[in-house]
Amino acid sequence: MTLSPPESGVHDPARLLRSLGALPAGALALPADEAYRAVTSLSPSGPCEPCAVVTPATAADVAAVVRAAGASGLRVAVRRTGHGAVPVAGDTVLVSTALLDECAVDVERRSARIGAGTTWQQVLDAATPHDLAPVCGAAPGIGVVGYLTGGGIGPLARTHGVSSDYVRALEVVTGDGQLRRATPTEHPDLFWGLRGGKATLGIVTAVEVDLVPLASVYGGCLWFDGADAPAILRAWRRLCEDLPEEGTTSLALMHLPPLPHVPAPLAGRRTVAVRFAWTGAPTDADRLLADLRAAAPPVAGDVTVLPYAAIGSIHADPVELLPTREHTLLLSSFPQEAADALLSAVGADSPQTMVELRQLGGAVARAPRHPSAVSHRDAAVNVFTVGMPSSGDPAAVDRHAERVLDALTPFAYGGTLANFSADDSPAVVARSFSPAALRRLTALGDRYDPHGVLRTGQVARSPLAGS
Question: What angle is formed at CA 20 by the lines to CA 27 and CA 118, rounded to 5 degrees?
Fold first, then answer.
């Protein structure tokens, strides 16, 4: 199936401005405005040059923006914190969801209603006083909706599964400018595709999620000297082989820059970080970690009982956005041969800030109660590289990352996880889905957005006529 561009206008920002005259004062920002620069600066992965930025206060405002953009021959992209953002072109209106920051916890129903502008930290602050936990990501400072539309593999993923499986309803503005509610019984096709399909099917304005009864976890991070990487990697592999579903772990080869938030013992030094979260008895976890602790002396860190509100301290991801280059790969297995190949490819002079191995399996691999677009659940390990080009040569970081991933190709699963890829090229987006999920998601995107108003970013869509 091929589609034609909209015929109602040809990139007419002036018509857009006339159409949006009814929006509240301050909602619309143009390139000369400070509000425009504040939003577009949240773009570490590429240029962000929309013709306008709109910060709507209601879901109805979002729908009005989509309709006005469509009538003006323009596209619409959406952004909250800028994490995972992809480039935005000049024929696009950028919607900032910052004002849609509703967060209401229903203690009796163990659920929360969350606006698209809300971060996970806000949900943690609202839910954890009631000993309820959102199944969130490793970085509480990121937006809830962007994370959930990509699936979500958090610090407790092996215990509680994919985060988007806890979504019970979504409110979304589709490409035709209509506000719809998606549940297992209302627009079930949208409910399937919005959970895992990224931006393909619309701009989500609010979600309702289930919360789990959980007050604390036994977790933290142990840091080892980079010279001990071979021994620690062997011990971590053994830990993964025996790890019950109560545990979730990742290992990262780190080279942290000397930034203000980086502890002195780690700044500018090559280290190995082993992250660990456990929902069972701490004594059982200590037995599992004994081999790792014996492999080499930690230089920093600890594993201890943490209030769930401090779940972000396990990965301790930076709060501020940094200019990074990111690459990812899924593995079907991680034998010792893969570990040896990884260490050889990374080398002693790696330009990567982080090369992470995140163990999957457990609850991640189980089919959810309500099927979704999330694919590749049965992969064993997610590989994720993050580099900050300090020399001004991003290509050098990319080449090294490709060398690392190429070394792991014999163990590759095929495909990627959507949230680990800040790349909007159709070939890369397609790898985030199984062939069946990709076909269904593409058909739904074409149906709900027939004029391609939302044809931008990480979307699965049919090729345009003539392309």
Answer: 35
